[in-house]
Amino acid sequence: QVQLVESGGGLVQAGGSLRLSCAASGRTFSSYAMGWFRRAPRKEREFVAGVSRGGANTYYGDSVKGRFTISRDNTKNTVYLQMNSLKPEDTAVYYCAATVGPYTDYHMYNYWGQGTQVTVSS
């Protein structure tokens, strides 16, 4: 198993930027594809972005494509989400997740962090 801890959330104004980090435990970090999800109030969890085990391939949800960038550093057991041009509708709790399955298959993520709050003011 892998333990995940998110950080970097906070309050930003619309149009601003924020970078989230997710620190993973253990020696097997590179065995997992990693992703970011978010949950807005009264909504189901939404897939935001995924990255393959080696970091060469990425995939994004339509709502964030062109604004967010996912990356990973396997030497640091860390995955990042760079969020630019933030909008009020990006306000949500953001969760880091891991899977041994494909990075594009959002149904297969089965390890989760506690989440970090991102609030975008208008």
Write a structural description.
The protein has strands at residues 4-7, 10-13, 18-24, 33-39, 46-51, 58-60, 68-73, 78-83, 92-99, 111-112, 116-121. It is mainly β. Helix content is 0%, strand content 48%.
Shape call? globular
Please state the CA-atom Rg, rounded to the nearest Å: 13 Å
State which percent range the strand residues make up: over 45%
Oligomer: single chain
Give the averaged pLDDT, no decimals: 96
Number of helices: 0
Biggest sheet architecture: 7 strands, mixed
Helix content: under 10%
For the termini, the CA-CA separation is 40 Å
Helix-strand string: EEEEEEEEEEE
Question: How do the strands and helices of this protein lay out in sequence?
Answer:
Layout: E1 4-7, E2 10-13, E3 18-24, E4 33-39, E5 46-51, E6 58-60, E7 68-73, E8 78-83, E9 92-99, E10 111-112, E11 116-121
Parallel strand pairs: 2-11
Antiparallel strand pairs: 1-3, 3-8, 4-5, 4-9, 5-6, 7-8, 9-10, 9-11
Q: How would you briefly describe this protein structure?
A:
With 122 residues, the chain is an all-beta fold.
Tags for this model:
122 residues, mainly beta, 7-stranded mixed β-sheet, 4-stranded antiparallel β-sheet
